[in-house]
Amino acid sequence: MFTYLRTTRPGQFLVIGILFTILGFVAGGIYSRLAFYAAIFFLGFFAAKQAMVETVTSKSPNVDLLMILAALGAVVINYESEGAMLLLIFAGAEFLENFATDKSTNAIKELMAHVPSVAQVLQANGEVVEVPTEELKIGDIAVVSKGAQIPIDGLIDRKTQINEAALTGESLPVEKTEGDEVFAGTLNEGNAFHLTVNKTSDQTVFSNIIRMVEEAQSRPSKISKFIDRFEKQYVIGVLIAVPLFIFALYFFSNFAFEDAFYRGMVLLTVASPCALVASATPATLSAISNGAKNGVLVKGGAAMEALATMEILYSDKTGTLTFGDFQVMEYQIPESVLPEVVFMEQQSTHPIARAIVQQFSDLKLDGIDQTEPVEEIPGSGLKKGAIKVGKPSAFDGFHDEHQYRSKTTEDHTTVLVAEGQNIVGYIALSDQIRPEAIEAVDGFQEEGIQVELLTGDNQAVAEKVAGEVGVDAFAAACLPEDKINFILRSQEDGQVVGMVGDGINDAPALATADIGVAMGSGSSVAMESADVVIVKNDLMKLLYSYRLSHRLNTIIKQNVVFAVGVIVVLIVLNLLGYLDLPAGVVFHEGSTILVILNGLRLLRMEDKSAAAQPAGEKPVQI
Ligand code: ADP
Ligand code: MG
What we know:
Helix content: 40-55%
Distance between the termini: 52 Å
Largest sheet: 7 strands, mixed
Strand content: 15-25%
Oligomer: single chain
Structural class: alpha+beta
Shape: elongated
Number of helices: 22
Strand order of the largest sheet: 10-22-21-20-11-18-19
Bound molecules: adenosine-5'-diphosphate, magnesium ion
């Protein structure tokens, strides 16, 4: 906060203005007056600039204009100390608002500062050299020593413990094993390891977060857009009302002109909607910043505000309620077809594809026609020439002489393989339910939100997962468009719909929902289409953000009611002649400061569930 005062021009002017104001109060006679003039100049400089720019270029008069006029008016009637105080508190409030804005990027930028700018790279000849992280290429191998900050996203080659607090806010170290992904900015608390770079420095989870947070700030919430529009009308109203008021007092109430003008200045001061204008933005930015620190990225004020209004939450299964970390349990595929299937799955990023590729990684694929295109049908499977792999419902009407379709049980996700119109094989895979998903679904239901499962997987697995997780309803064998239809139907019923998912197949549904939520481990298309990203896939963090959003809406409501209440009371007191200018300045500007401080409280709200999370609960296998 102090660096800001020292290093920015508005900060420096604020400090100089405060000093002149103090001087004004201690000095006597003409010096006092001169000091206040100087204070008014320094304190009002930026507000005046802002007022001119907004009024002239964008034709929308704002509160800054009212404040400058009120201060000048005070000077005219020899109330320069009040004029200086008014601008002092106004500039102070502005400063607090900037502080909230900076805080929401800085919270993350500060963490970013910890991401090392160089990495220790292992050369082919076994030598280790220092390379700037921007120059790292995918496939490079970096050495990360014990206690070091990880320079870039990549896959590790042995067991270690990683502290991911920088991303998730969760300070307990996470156990990682060979082949797991680790992220730039997190801390290696285990032994040294080698890391195979899998993202360039501008594509890391961390740099994406920074970019999305910056974009988020430029997207105002509905309430702040409304307040912005309202501000213009209201300011024009005040600009008309004040002269009329002075005029009326002078001509109809037999006031001396100075007295009428004085009352007019009090009205101008107390009727300015400073506190109202500051009701939403600092609070919203504080909430976004709090979310980011807790591993949830909310892209913009509108999304932060809307989250609390959610009435129904649809959830994808694979990768969302489950880890999406499949193991092949059983399979039967003719030897001639298997390499084709593995080759096809190599082209897909689906969790099932990853599991199949890993299971058959020793298989030789050289006899395959690699020029023939592989087509992926999102949410269904793959096709290459006559060969087709995918979910059982995509094989309706196919010959099934070995009865492979009957291998579909509730315990496994089964994919079938066909050649032409004949089903020639199957692969049964199993996944695990995320333990925190059960808890989160329960939490949402307690908040009165209906949770429903929409999955592309078969009926039996869907039913099992639905039962284990405890969702209210489920639908199996959904195509991407089916997911959209469920959302649209709920929206037609007037419900505010949330959708959480991870896959390419979920992206259209995420974009359709009022609040789209993507898992951080999901595809980048899903993350781009979503309004909210759960960076580390913990659904409890979504529940936390929901509660944060509730708090935000409560605080905004408190602020608006308080701001309007103070304005009304002060106007009435002024009409009755019970309010002088110094009191008007103090109450009016004091209410602005209080409103901003009330918003900043959201920076400090804590995630209580993080500490209370059950450790080492056994995941349910499906
Ligand atoms: P979910 O909606 O549960 O996340 P998806 O919609 O991603 O599941 O996939 C639905 C089904 O489509 C999977 O259960 C699987 O049977 C099939 N499928 C999707 N992609 C592939 C693939 N690359 N290989 C084989 N089967 C696939
Ligand atoms: Mg999925």
